[in-house]
Amino acid sequence: MKRTIKTLVAASLVGGSAATAGAYFGLVNVGADDPHLPAVYAFLSMARDRSIEVRSRDIVVPDLDNQELIRAGAGNYNAMCIGCHLAPGVAETELSQALYPAPPNLAEIGVDGNPAAAFWTIKHGIKATGMPAWGKSMADPYIWGMVAFLQQLPELDAQEYRALVASSGGHQHGGGETDMHNHENQHGTPGDDHHAGEMAGASHHDAAAADHHGGDLASADHPAGETPGASHHDAQPAAAAPKPATKTHTHADGKEHVHAH
Ligand code: HEC
Q1: 217 pLDDT higher than 90
Q2: Which of 51, 59, 84 to probe ligand 1 with, by most ligand atoms within 8 A of CB?
Q3: Which of 52, 75, 175, 253 is the most exposed place for a label (fewest CB within 10 A)?
């Protein structure tokens, strides 16, 4: 028995050192365009699923059939999530195609049969995957709104999806605001990075999200330095020269996009 334990300890020390040495010499390719080996992928998926299952076991799920909750969730989902997770009538985006692991298409899987797990995932995010911890900027009732909405999403067609979003009153940020366009003093800390996530959610390819900040352009209550309505392609440093009327952006595949302002 003692001998077996010694052998096991020695073997794991050798294995551990070999893995550490390999990593130190750069053998691990962290590139998002280089898929994991199947065994590594299976291990990481198992670790993620079990981690979420165990942590969401005791979460008490509220009434998810509440129409107001579903409506609020639709506006927030449309503003913050479709860039990665898509929606009915929304074409694939650069983010949805290029992230690894790939964001699941939530228009198809909804809450994936487990609303408590979806709530936990949205609130806490998933390390090193691109899935943000929305609980840093959104209170629980707003996250439940998105869970309630996601439960309905696979049943919606593009028209029903757009109608629900239009009826939602837009993006609510999640701090209990009454005036959705007044961004001032509503985030915990100055320089709060909430808007970084928002940009990712509001890709310029998504017609449904195109007018997300449309109303903001007209209002003057943005904190200084924030570019109202900026998409992730045209965020510019404050010192940049005056903006041209349009901006052309060329993709690696040679396709050109012209951004109107
Ligand atoms: C920048 C991209 C990105 C954004 C924006 C994003 N997510 Fe995710 N999300 C991901 C990725 C990637 C995963 C999968 C991670 C993995 O496979 O481990 C994920 C996983 C999830 C899951 C788990 C799905 C399942 O059943 O496996 C849910 C639920 C989810 N996201 C909801 C949301 C909601 C709601 C929003 C908006 C508030 C959002 N996400 C915004 C990238 C994103």
Answers
A1: no
A2: 84
A3: 253
